Every structure is written in C-alpha cells, then in structure tokens.
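Objective 1b: paired records.
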Amino acid sequence: MKILKLIRSRVLGIGVAGVMGLSSLAAPFSALAADAGENVSENEASEAGLPEEGSEETKEDTIEDTKEDKKEDTKEEAGEETEGSSEEATVSGNEAEEDTEEEDEDVSENDGELPIDTCFPGEPGFPSEPAVPDEPETPVTPPAPAAYTGITIDGELSDWDAVPKNSAAGMIQEAAVIQDGDYVYIYLKDDGNECAAWSGPKNNGKFSFVSDLGYTTTFQLNNNPASVSGVDGAFCAYKFSWDNPGFGEWEVAVPVSALPVNMGSYSFGFYQGDRFVEGITDDRYHVVDPDNGDEDENKPFDGIVYDGLYGDWKNYPHTLIHYATSGTEERVVDGEGALYVDGSTLYGHCITIMNRHLNNEGGNEMLEGVVLRINGRDDMLFEFRFATVDGAGNINWHPQLEYLSEGTYEYIISDVNGWGNAANIEELKNQGVDKDGYYGRILVTVDSVTDECEWWLDLPLLAERFGLDETDIKTIEVKYEQIGDRWLETAGASSGAVAGIMLSLSAVGAVLVLRKKKGERGQCTI
C-alpha cells in the first residue's frame, strides 16, 4: 500500500510542475502591463509610505504576489484545458489529501522518523536486512596416521613415515629402528653430504647394537659411495635433500643373525657413545622351559658348569672390554667378559673375535696379564700364573701360552709371586698359600673365529692369601691386560666370601644384581 502511495505522490508532483510551467509563460505579459503605467513609480511609493524597491519587505511581497499570480493563472489555464475532467481532478485532490494525512499519521506513529516510503538504504529509518545465520563450520579431520607396510632399501623414504623417529646426537639429527623378519632396518637423518660416515665420538662412522646382556655388535657407514661394512649381508641407501638447510637420509638393513645375544631387547646408537633408540624388541626371543625338552638356546641362565662348552655363559650379562675405544680400526669389539659367584667359588669368562688377537696372539690374550684385585686395593693384587699338569700329575711351570693351535687347553692357576717349585699337583695342594698355592683352573679354546676361556677360583684360599676372613672380601675385580684396560667387577656381601655379584652395564644403562647362596644354583634377582 505504501509503495502505491509513493507512486501517486510522484505522479501528482509531475502534474503540478507542468501547470507551473504554463504560468511562467504568462510572466512576460504581466511585465508589459507594468511598463504601461499600471505600477507605481518609486517616488510615489516612497511618498505614499510604501517600502522601497529592493528592500526585504518588497522582496517578500513580490514573492507572495508571484505565488498568487501563479495560482490564479494555473487555475484559469487548468480550468480551460481540463473542463471535462474536473471530477477526476477533484477525486485525485481528495486522494492526495488523504495520502498526506496518512503520511502525517505515519510520522506520528514512528515518533518523528521518516516513513519507510521516503527512506533509502543507508538513511535513518530504513529497515535493516534480516540477519543471515552463519554457516556451520565444517570440522577438520586430521589425516590418518601412516600405516606400516614394510621397509624397502631403495632411497625412497616414504615407507618410514609410520616408524617413530627419535632425536639423536652430533651430526645425526634423527634415528629410528624397526626389526622386521630377517632384517633390522635403521633410519638416520644426518646434516648432509653423507656426514654420518664421519660422525660419532671418534668421527669414524661407527655404530652399534648393545643387548640387554651387554653384548655388542658394531658396523661402520662409509661415503663416496654410501655403504656399510663390518657385518656380512648388511646394505644401505642414501638420499640427499636440497632443502635449506640441506640434510641426508640413510636407510640400512642388518641381518637379525648379526644382532648381539640378548634376552629380548637391545639398543642402537654410536659405538661407545650416545644411544639413539632404547628397548628395541627382538621378536625372536622367547623364554623356554628346559624341563619340557625344549633345546632352544635362549633358555634362562641357570648357573655355570666348568666344562669348556661356554654355552651356559651365553645368557649371562657381560661387559665390554677394550683398548681401541670407538676409534678402533677394526669393526668388532676387543672383547667381552663376565664374573659370577656361586657360594665360595668365583667363575670368570672372556671372549674375543678381534682379528688382531686371533692372528697375533693365539690364546695368549687370555693367559698373560690377567690380574685380580680385592676391595679396590692395589696392595691386594693377585696375578694369575698358569701351569699345565700331565696325566701323572706332574706340573710344567713353563708351558706354551701363545700361538696355540686350534683346540682347547687347560691350565692350573697359581700365584705369579709363588715359588713355582712344586713337582706335582698333590705337592702343590699341600703347600698352601705361603709358597705357590693351587687356587683354581682355566680352560682356553682357540679357533679361527673366536678365542674364549672360562675359569674358577677358590675364594676361601684367596682370602687366606691376603690374611682376610671370607666376610672381609667386599669386591673383586679382574682385568685382562692384553684385551683392554677395563676392570670387571663383583660385589661381595657379609654373609660369605663374596655372596653376590654386580655387573655395571653402563652401555645399556642398567644394573643387574645376582644373589647366590651357598648350595643354590640359578637363583636370579633383578
């Protein structure tokens, strides 16, 4: 309805403007009549008290007269031209008046605001558009984690997306390890230019696996071209990224058969340096029950039998022994050793696969420079002296101790500070500690790939040698000076002559404590 009113008011305005245009045509004729003497001169008007021409009063009267003249002229002309439509004009006039009244009412109702049909967008009183509700936000679904589908050594690293990465150290930014089937796969991100090949404590690219038993397997990365050495059957690939800053990525495959002996887990990192990945699971390992006839070699440790077979040492914790440190030119460790106490007997074990020992010493590394220390005191050193005994019990105090042929050899253990004059074993046993003393025995096996030994000592006799009671022995350490400058350590207890053992496996960040009581075997407390 209001839109219709607006249209009518605009039409009426156009009509009135047309009529006013006709009245303007009559204005020249009125001006001619004024020139003919119908108007009063300025002097006469002044004398008659009329306002002067050009004054404000004269201007107002002129405007009013002009309006009256226009109205009269409009009425006359409109009457002549629209005599037949007077009724329609009357109706239109009435409607216009009604519209004006309604507009006045609208203004009153709107408390002085302009009616909507006279407002335009942006002006006061113009109604705003209805609010449009916000579109609901579409939830962002995070990408699904990558699924592990296996590793292929090809220099394309997308198959590593599903394997968690660990921060590393030195020139190695990240590292990851996963054991899958016949291989252990290793991922390394370095600073670029194959620099992993000269990373590590001695800048020689040496890396290692260390088992939960302390055994170690090493390998070396090489550059130009990228390759891996030290483990038969290992291979690798390298990819360099030109991002800023640039970096390189290695992926390495090592056969699981090369992993160190373990009880279900191992770690990876620099050889004798930072460990990048801990607690890697060896899924080949399982605890077996020997009572069920299971001959699996991963049976739990159940004590030591002195027999030269060495298998019972396999699942017992060992410690790395070395001189060469991580800077060794060889790709294997110098050696590994362990000590074990059962009642009043101390057992020892040592093994090496280093070519220098195998080729140049032939067992001598196990038979020369073996020293024992009690309670950490240098005035309580016991240096092993080795002699052989033939079938008749006769003692040879100067047997061959180096360049042995492949085979297993047995020696008796005496004190290097003894007299060495006992003719046979029975005489030696009766001499006591004041002369030579018969303290124990050692078995040494030499072959083309391994030199290995195990031995035992009588702890009460050892305590007597230093004028101690068995309970006075708190620690015993042993060093193989031909293999490394590292003391293997035991810890004693007051209940007996070394009733316990502690091996500090710093390489894997663990301490294993074994407690043995006299007469018990295989009891292990961790």
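Objective 1b, second protein:
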Amino acid sequence: MNAYQANLYLPLIAAGFYAGILILPQIRRRPEKNQASWLVATLVLSVVWEFSLFFAASIPLANLPTLVLLLSVCALAGTTSAFLDWRPKQKYVLLAGTAVLTTLLINLLVPNRTFLLPGGRPLGLTNGTLAAYLTWAGLFGALLITTWREYRKTRFPWHANRLLFWFTVLATLFFGELIQFFDQLGFIIIGQVLRYVGMVGLAYGIASYRIFDVRARAQRGIAFIIINTLSALPLILSVIIVFQFGEAINRTNDVFTSILIALVITLGFFLYQPFRRLISNVVFRYLRGEGVNAGLVVRNYSQAISRTLDVQQLSILIVGTLSELLETNRGALMLVTHLEDGGFEIAPIPAMGVVPRHPVRFAHDDLFINTLMAQHQPLLQYELDFNPAFKGLREEERTWLDDMTMEVYVPVSSGEDIVGLIAVGPKVSAVPYQPIELELMQTLADQTVVALQNARLFSELNIQNEHIRYLNIDLVEQNEKLEIMDRVKSDFITIASHELRTPLTQVKGYADILSAMNEENALTREQTREIVGHINRATLQLERLITAMLDASQLDVDGMQLTFVKTRLDTVLRLAVEPLIQAMRERRILYEVEGVDSLPPIYADFKRLVQSFTNILGNAVKYTPDSGRIHVRAAIVPGQNEEEFLEIVIRDTGIGIDPKFHTLIFEKFFRIGDPQLHSTGSTKFKGAGPGLGLPIAKGVIEAHGGRIWVESEAEDEERLPGSTFNIVLPVRPPGSEDVANGETAVRPAYLIG
C-alpha cells in the first residue's frame, strides 16, 4: 500500500494501542474465559496484522496483510459466538472454514493474475486479493446478519441493548476495515481509528457485563446536537441582521448604528435562554415522552390500595398502575411465604398477560430471594442472566424465571422480612427501564407492604371460611350417609333373616314330608328323588348366601387370595353369563357382546373375575324389565408408562339408579327399595338380594388394580334411562409378574378404597 509508505510508523503505533488493550487486567480477570480467550486471539491477530502491514514490502508472500486480516475476522466470529452464546450449525461452520481455506490456497498456490478494465488498463486487483476480499465480506456480513437477527427476536430490552451494542461495534469494525481497502492515507487513518474504537468496544463488552443504554446515549447525542443547533438561531439571526443592514445604517449615523447593533445583540442573548429551554422541552418530550409526576402517582396509588382487601384485585391494581405509567402489558404480584424449614414458597397472582400460576419453592439460602431481601431494590432479569454474581443460580430456578418472562422483580418487604414480589414484563416499546423508573417501582412496592399483608390475612380468612363451609357440607353428607348405612344395617337383619329363612323353611318342610311319608312306607323312588332335589336346591341357595357373606367379610380384612393366570375376557364373560341365560330367555332380555374376541389375554384370578362379572350382569338382569337389552362392549386402552388396560362397558335398558346412590350401591348390604317388600329371587325383575353382589365385584376388580363406577341419569320405571357400569382392568396387574414364566403368582388382595 503506497499510502503506508508515506507514513511507515502508523501500523506500529496501531499495534501498540492493540497491545495496550491486551494488558488490561479487566480482560484477564473476566469470569467468562471462553469470551476472553477469543478476544485475546482477535487482538493478537490484530497486532500481527499491523506488523504484516509494516513489513509487507519485505515479505515475498502477496496479500499477507489481507490473509492475516481474514484470520482476525475468524477470531472475531469466535468472539461473537461466545458473546452471544450462539452455537452455529455445523454446515455453516464447514462453509466458512471451506471459504477461508480456499482463499488461503488460492493465494499460496494459484499464480496471481491481474484483472484488466475494458480499456486495457490494469485494475490493480489480483485473483487472490479478490478471493480474500469476498471471503472477508461474506464472514463479516454473516456476523452482522446473525447479530441483528438475535437482536430482533430478543424479548427483553436490556438483553436487546447488549446485542445492539455488539452490532454497533461490529459495524464500526466493518467500516473501519472496509475504508482501509481504499489506498488513501486519509481513509487509512480514519479506518485505523474506527477499527481501534471497535476493538475498544469489544473489550468493553467482554469486560463489563452491564453495558450502557445504547439508544438512550444515541437519543441524548441527537438531542444535544438539535438543541444546540436550534438554540443558536437567535444569535445567528442577530449576526445576520448586523452584517446585512449595518453597512447601510452606518452611512447615516454612527451613534444610531452602534445603539441598534447593541440592541440586536442584546435581544439575541436575551432570547437565547428561553428559546433553548423551549427547544429542550420539545425535543425531550418527543424523544422520551412526557414525564411522570411521581408524587401524584404515589399519592393516588396509596389511596387506591388502602381500599383493597382482595389479593387478586391488589395484583390487578399494582400491575395496572405500572402498565399505565410504563406501557407494559405483562405483570403479576407474587406472594412469598416463609416455610417451616427456612425456605420460601412463591405463588404468582397473575394480573396481566399469561403467567404460570403454579407455586415454586426456594431453599433458605437461595441467591435470588436473599439478594432481593438484602439489596431492597429492583432486580433485572438481565442481572440474573449476565451478572457473574448470579452464576450460582440453580437450573430449576432459571427454568422458572424463563417461564415467567419478566423483565424486573421488585421486592415488597418490611425490614428484613419479604412478603411478596412485583414482577413486571418488558415495555411494549422495547425500551429498557431507566433508573428513575426502577426507583418509582420500588417506591410503589414500599407503599404496598401493609396493603398486601392485610389482603393476605383477609384472603386466608376467606379460605378458612370456605374450608369450614365445605367441611360443613361434607359433614352433612357424611351424616346422611351414616343414617343410610345405619338404616341399611337394620334392614340387613330383615333381609338376611328372610334370605336365610326361605331355604331353611324349604329344607325343614321337605325333611318333614320325607319323614312322614317314610313312616307310612308311602315313598317311591321317584318321590324320594324329587324331595331330595328340592332339599339340595335350598341347601345350595343357603350355601351361596353364606359364601357371599364370607367373601364380603374378606374385603375388610384383606384376606382374599388372588391366583393369577393367563386368561381371556371372552371366556370370563361366557362363564359369567351362563347361570343367567335361562332367566334372560324366559324374560326375553337381549344380550349383546361387542369387541371381546379381538382382545389380548390378561392376567387375572379367573374364578374371582367370573364371580365379579356374574354379580354385575345379574344386577343388570334384575333391574332390566322384560324385553329389555344388555350390551357389553370391550376395548383395549393405553395407559401411562406403556401400560395397557381393558375397558369394559356394561349398559342396560333398566330402571336406572339415582345419582345419590352411585357410590352407595358398592357398600356392603346396601340395596335400593323398601326392605319390607323384599322378595327372594336372583333373576326376576327387581328381585333383590342381600346387597353383597356389587360390593364383592368392586373388591375383586380393585384387587386386580382396576376401577369400577356407574353412570345413570336417574331411577325411573317409566322412561327406563338405564345404567352403565364402567370397568377398567390392567392387562398386567401388580403381582402377576411371574406368570409369564409359567408360574402362578399369589398375593393378598390389598384392596383400594
């Protein structure tokens, strides 16, 4: 470069300045070692670049300074990546690396060829130089575009300010290097100054986590230029008047001319201060908006919160006031509760915007809460993300803070006791919060302490009252249930005596007949067989009743043993409905089954499951009138953790069940209807039993790890709304793990509920 030959020592001076940045202690002590390392590499390559410029004439390698500058841009890309915490995609890294390597190979291996203009004049640009310039422009352009995109999509203003500062620094470096490509001394000096300013900006950005407000500084600079330019207008007009008209007036009267000039100049100075104040007010109002009367805001706010006793309304009032003043559209009041173990629980009360409501717990030594308590001043999300003092925040705390997406957290505390936080989102204008605004937030938070304590006490009182109300309702319901169950116990004596007396009467009656006829020698073989058959049927009925009572008693003492085997539901249903087929034929009840054949095998206690479904289907038969319908549908449904369940739905067209009895029908000995009208019969319409069938069915199903419940509109013998029993059974219940190996798994039935 010929311009550098005119001033050989300029690169050495610039190298000295870059070396001065290298020895700054703030760079070496930076906690982010990755950022500092890349910055040092960039500065070292800058020094090498300056020396390559100084020794360019004595080094035979063409374009050496440009190649070193290209490597410096690569180091700058690493610095930017570390600063933005940006991990570029592998294909972009490969593309950039290929471009740089290609440029180096072109300059090292390909002979230099000078490009010619249309007139035959040499352009002064070789193929190696062109490749280096294009690669440099591509890398720098990629850095600028990436930084700008990150800036545009950042939610928080202070985070965006950090990226805007970095973009400004990169742009300064870009233009500083670009204008040095023009081989003119003036351009080179300006370019060196711009590049050095850019490097100082890089060092400032790496060394200091808290970067000044770029837009506010720019606004102040623009305001300074506008105000001083416009404020000088009275003086400028005074000078113009004096020069334009002074010569003409001077010809007539010297004294008059002097007095007039003095008056004009005095008027200019007199108008300067008022005019400057007017211009200042107009400019600052346009750039910053109208100011806030803090005293009036605090007074009105204090009056408003003193009349608020509801926490939700208080949250809306606080955030609404801040939204009016600061133009934010997101915020919440967060209640801080001190736990017995010394920790804290924070419960958000959303007021504006979508805010997660789930409470979160913090340890007693939590950095976030303790900093707010100790400093008693607003804490920016920017501080939490970039201040080295907050590197110790736990990962779950950072996740919660990210979910909140708030810009600033303001402590509401009295002395050392923190009672809440005011969380405020970013401004709609994306302008960072200024110190005076943060101070106003803290003032409003201090005014909120007493109101928040009163609102929390009032809220807790309401919660206690509501809790007592629900307890009273539950107590009434339990009393009603106890009355019903007490009546059930009394009814059971009547029902049980009837159920027991009927078969006993039959046994005794037939035994007496048998004895009398035997004494008279009037018995034939056929008569003996008939009488014994009646006695056996009565005995079987009595045995079934006693067995049901024993099974019901096992539900209370967890004595039921389950033997798991691999079985199919269609077999279970077929055997369960077998005792009921004759009764359904006689009463013309249609029985339908759907989806059972395609189900996979399940692991269950075969005998108990048949017993359970027999009881449920028998209940459907008894409460379905003649010519009714019973429909069974089964399907497999997925569960959590890759578990599978069978869903069985048994729907009938019977008289239905009153909703208030939906849970009571699964209680032992409970039955719907007047016990005085009790009639023995397992299958005839409304033929009630002792009230043990459904409780046993529920116990067996829950012992398998399943559930059973009933759905019905009401009990109505005219409309016949019907009932739907829903049963869910696991394909692989707990305790059946060994069955797959061909063994039998036995366990006590630890029943649920």
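Residues 1-6, 743-753 have pLDDT under 50 and may be disordered. DSSP finds 23 helices and 16 strands in the chain.
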